[in-house]
Amino acid sequence: MRTALLGAARSDALRRAVTSSPATRPVVSRFVAGDDLDAAVRTVRELTAAGLTFTLDHLGEDTTSREQAEATRDAYLHLFRRLADEGLTAGAEASVKLSALGQALPRDGVRVSTGLAAELVAAATENGVLVTLDMEDHTTVDATLETLRTLRAEVPTVGAVLQSMLHRTEADCRDLATAGSRIRLVKGAYAEPESVAFPDKADVDRAYVRCLRILVEGQGYPMVATHDLRLVRIARELVTRTGRDADSYEFQMLYGIQPAEQRRLAEEGATVRVYVPYGTDWYGYFVRRLAERPANVGFFLRSLTTR
Ligand code: FAD
User: Fold this and answer.
1) 220 neighbors 248 (Cβ within 8 angstroms)
2) Does the CB atom of residue 253 touch ligand 1 within 6 A?
3) Pocket test for ligand 1, best of 96, 182, 196, 226 (most atoms within 8 A of CB)
4) Whose CA is nearest to atom 3 of ligand 1?
5) Is there a domain that residue 63 lies in?
6) 160 assigned ligand-binding residue
7) pTM exceeds 0.90 for this model
8) Which of 32, 51, 60, 142 could pair with 281 as two cysteines, CB 3.0-4.6 Å apart?
9) Is residue 45 a contact partner of residue 88, using CB atoms and an 8 Å limit?
10) 264 labeled part of a ligand binding site
11) How far apart are CA 220 and CA 180, in angstroms?
């Protein structure tokens, strides 16, 4: 079912059917802060009032034109100005998908997306906002890490995401566990072939622990992004054992998932960053959230049929 759903994430026909149905709205709003920046600002105000910090994602991916890629950059520039005007930049972060900045455009997609990302990172830095590059499917990992290297030459705080489901990730963790390196560790949200990824969830979880150990024992800044409470517990044990200070790592969770746990961890003194997506292009993000938990699909289908 997970693979079928993740395939649906790339179907234009399904996208049209799902996004045009008003019945989907209440379910989508569990995972997405809203259609516009006003809604995003309202959400991050609530989170900061509860002692949480945030990373904002202007939803969008798989851009097919240079104009669309530039519009994505502009949306982020607008976001940074708004956060500054609202006095919300302290500890703020933005998450960016390079495919939204044109990474897959024919011929010069990597050059275009790296250039736009560099403009975006410069503007974020001017406004005191951090940036992390989201990681998409395995075919994009090399290009994304190359862009990361280019961006870090100017702004070393740019973060990246590594996915424990990929065989290559332990080696990537070793390469990137260097001083100051901000690395978000996730399990991975994309359908991947067995040639590059662990097909069994138990192996993905075991790989997560191995990667976590490399990052926590390394010199960088690990961002432990999971709702798996067993892994959260293991992370806490590892940081205690290695004597890491509370400000040398953080937990991250998605908006709408395990909100009580987010608050509990923050109350215990941990830095907890909530990933807050906003915008109208929510379809791909939403389908990946459905695919993560079969119960979500039932809930979604029931909401469609009970109206
Ligand atoms: P799971 O084993 O999937 O879930 C553990 C428990 O969490 C479940 O039992 C359930 O109780 C709860 N849970 C998990 N997902 C859901 C859900 N959708 N709905 C309701 N409950 C749920 N992936 C990428 O590939 N690239 C990225 O750049 C990326 N960025 C991310 C950023 C953050 C801050 C987070 C938290 C995740 C990100 N992900 C990214 C997604 C990640 O790869 C996983 O798909 C997702 O986090 C689910 O895995 P899990 O670690 O929570 O473990």
Assistant:
1) no
2) yes
3) 226
4) 292
5) yes
6) no
7) yes
8) 60
9) yes
10) no
11) 5
**How many folded domains does the chain comprise?**
1
Any domain includes 228: yes
Span from the CA of 188 to the centroid of ligand 1 (angstroms): 8
Residue 188 marked as a ligand binder: yes
CATH of the domain at 48: 3.20.20.220
**Ligand 1 atom closest to Cα of residue 290:** 18
Contacts of 298 (CB under 8 A, 6+ apart): none
Distance CA 307, CA 303 (A): 7
**137 to each of 59, 103, 140, 190, how far by Cα in Å?**
16, 12, 6, 6
CA-nearest residue for atom 36, ligand 1, is 253
Instruction: Write out the catalytic residue numbers.
Output: 134, 184
Which residues are paired to 133 by β-bridges?
A: 96, 160
User: Is residue 143 in a domain?
Assistant: yes
* 135 has binding-site annotation: yes
Report the residue count for the chain: 307
Q: How many CA atoms lie within 13 A of 207 on its CB side?
A: 24
pLDDT tens, position by position, 81-128: 999 999 999 999 999 999 999 999 999 999 999 999 999 999 999 999
User: Which parts of the chain have pLDDT scores under 50?
Assistant: none
Domain with 254, as residue range(s), is 33-281
Q: Which atom of ligand 1 is nearest to the CA of 254?
A: 36
The secondary element (H helix, E strand) that includes residue 221 is strand 221-225
Atom 7 of ligand 1: nearest residue by CA position: 227
- State residue 270's pLDDT score: 97
Q: Which helix (H) or strand (E) holds 250?
A: strand 250-254
Q: Smallest Cα–Cα separation from 276: which of 120, 73, 66, 88? A: 88
Q: How far apart are CA 202 and CA 146, in angstroms?
A: 30
